[in-house]
Amino acid sequence: MVNTQIRHYDAIIIGAGFSGLYQLHLLRDRLKLNCIVLEKGEGVGGTWYWNRYPGARCDTESHAYTYFFSDEIFNEWEWSERYPGHAEIRKYLNFVSEKFDLKKDISFKSEVIKTSYKQNDNKWFLETSDDLFYSSKFLISAVGCISTANIPKIRGLDKFKGSYFHTGNWPKNDVNFEGKIVGQIGTGSTGIQAVPVIAETAKHFTVFQRTPNYSVPARNKPLSKDFKKYVKENFNDLRKTVKKTPNGHAFLISETLVHEVDEKERLKRYENAWEKGGLQFRGTFKDIISDKRANDTASEFIKKKIKEIVKNKEYAQILTNFDHPYAGKRPPIDTNYFETFNRENVHLVDIRNDPIKFIDEYGIATEKNYYNLDLIVFATGYDAMTGSLIKLNITGENNLKLEDYWKEGPKTYLGLQIPGFPNLFTITGPGSPSVLTNMPTAIEQHVEWVTDCIKYMIDNNYEKICTTDKKSQEWGKEVNEAANKTLLPTVKHSWYLGANIPGKPQVFMPYAGGLPVYKKICDHVKNNNYDGFVLT
Ligand code: NAP
After folding, report:
1. Distance in Å, CA 85 to ligand 1 centroid
2. What is the three-class DSSP state of 200?
3. pLDDT digits (tens, 9 = 90+) for 166-195
4. Rounded to the nearest whole angstrom, what is the distance from the C-alpha of residue 9 to the centroid of ligand 1?
5. How far apart are the first and last CA of the chain?
6. What would the CATH number be for the domain defined by 157-224+243-378?
7. Which residue's CA is the nearest one to ligand 1's atom 10?
8. CA angle 20, 21, 25 (to 5 degrees)
9. 233, 333, 223, 324: which is closest to 277 by C-alpha?
10. Comparing 3-148+384-535 with 157-224+243-378, is the CATH topology the same?
């Protein structure tokens, strides 16, 4: 029987990943609000609860992929590898949850299916998949930016007799590839991590690539005792660094422009960065992301490296037939990705030249060939940034549906609030730096801003906060201007633009001006009595 009793809270938080956990801690333990987190999964972790695919690991180095708000957590926790694997991140978030006793205020297996603002009550009403009803004054979405998996609509997939999985909804009990003929569609950051691991056990493995992707070696390794000691002893410096770099990482971006050095020096710097590995390759020169000529030098360097690694000349050509600048899409890093194409059990198909036509009971048909398969891996990405918010089925003031309001692309002020949706805050929402940064750093800034804002409202007896259409339009212009100073909007199929989802409006979604600039803007708003928001 459906229990229609409504459970009332001061604040409801949706999602128990990095954002939701920290938001719960601050609202409950600092502001003493009565809060609950509603979480679809059976445990904490957010994106890392669902992303358990082979090779799933964070591309940010572990000493930066961490909460910085608590010295205690930082001192007590120790990462084991240069880049944390998915299981270790879940372990970390469980450790944090236990440390602050968070789980008692999280309702697991509670997917929010309906969210409505009732004007007369100035309250949000929510309905969950477990037939429960909730209401609250404040609503904080902490649903993540890349959590709505996208399986492309390929004709005949429903007929396939083997198994298929999307990497972002990976089964908890490991998938066994041994002796299997496997196909994988998609070679983004995820696909590039999965390929080398799947290839180790699959009998035969076909990778279907549409767009080649630049990748730089991750050079993952267990952390030495000395490095662990260095991290503990330099916590304050690391915290300062992640807060001052544009991407929120613990590495600095060079101040040198590509053409300020001669070719020999340039290649030396690229070579060093390649050997060092990791996302910091893009910081080798200041203008890689902003100047096409500068970018070409990085692109050529990576192309040459791939051609040196991949022995099969046809595969090397397919893997380097780039149509976008390096780091114009989110740049992947890898462990033996290109080397994997030297294995005898691995086959590469260029589906830009031989597109997939359909899937049937036994495999994938392209225009020119047919591939028998036991198992298909979809590493095909996400309805990013807006998908998970729209899925909450949100109705704001005057029965305004979020889906309709965002028909032509997301409109927000600072990526924190949406006009017409009062008292709703969106952690790392579209229009904020989010996915262009090290996520926990961006998350901490947002969660702290939202907490300060709610505290201000309580202290000053305000009941309602909402931004305006005008402000969201002005902010939209700033987001575009920041993006246009980079090469990012020039990339055709980028999910930053929503271009990976057929029919999705194409608007550059994240703020590319860098975290410190963005934080300054947010602080200015806060210090001017939340200028740009209407408080009543
Ligand atoms: P993605 O970057 O969107 O890549 C999706 C891949 O699937 C692309 O190769 C794409 O080809 C292909 N694809 C999509 N639709 C297709 C279709 N209909 N037919 C054929 N191919 C299709 O997704 P992702 O690799 O899952 O990565 C998404 C984001 O998640 C990353 O950019 C990153 O921000 C995050 N991520 C982070 C980590 C981490 O370490 N923290 C790890 C993995 C992912 P096209 O390029 O041609 O569209």
Report:
1. 18
2. helix
3. 999 999 988 999 999 999 999 999 999 999
4. 37
5. 39
6. 3.50.50.60
7. 186
8. 115
9. 333
10. yes
Contact 133, 127 (CB under 8 A): yes
Spacing, Cα 22 to ligand 1 middle (Å): 28
Give buried/exposed letters for 157-169 (b at 16+ CB in 10 A, else e): beebebeebbbbe
Give the span between the Cα atoms of 64 and 141, in whole angstroms.
Answer: 24
Neighbours of 485 (CB within 10 A): 12
Q: Where are the domains of the chain?
A: 3-148+384-535, 157-224+243-378
388-392 long-range contacts, CB within 8 A, separation 24+: 388/143, 388/144, 388/145, 388/147, 388/148, 389/141, 389/143, 389/426, 389/429, 391/148, 392/14, 392/112, 392/115, 392/141, 392/143
Instruction: State pLDDT tens for residues 86-103.
Output: 999 999 999 999 999 999
Record: fold of 3-148+384-535? FAD/NAD(P)-binding domain (3.50.50)
Distance 190 CA to ligand 1 centre (A): 6
Mean pLDDT on 13-24: 98
Residues with CB under 6 A from ligand 1: 58-59, 146, 152, 185-191, 210-211, 330, 351, 379-382, 435, 493, 495, 500
- Residue 72 neighbours by CB distance under 10 Å: 10
* Mean pLDDT score, 65-92: 97
Encoded tokens for 402: 């979020």
**Closest-lying ligand 1 atom to the alpha carbon of residue 146:** 30
Selection from 184, 183, 186 nearest residue 212 by Cα:
186
Compute the CA torsion angle 10, 14, 18, 21 (nearest 10 deg).
30
Cα 349 to ligand 1 centre (Å): 17
CA angle 427, 432, 433 (to 5 degrees): 110
The preferred substitution site among 330, 353, 377 for testing ligand 1, maximizing ligand atoms within 8 Å of CB, is: 330
Phi, then psi, of 436 in degrees rounded to 5 = -90, 5
Task: State the chain's mean pLDDT as an integer.
Answer: 97
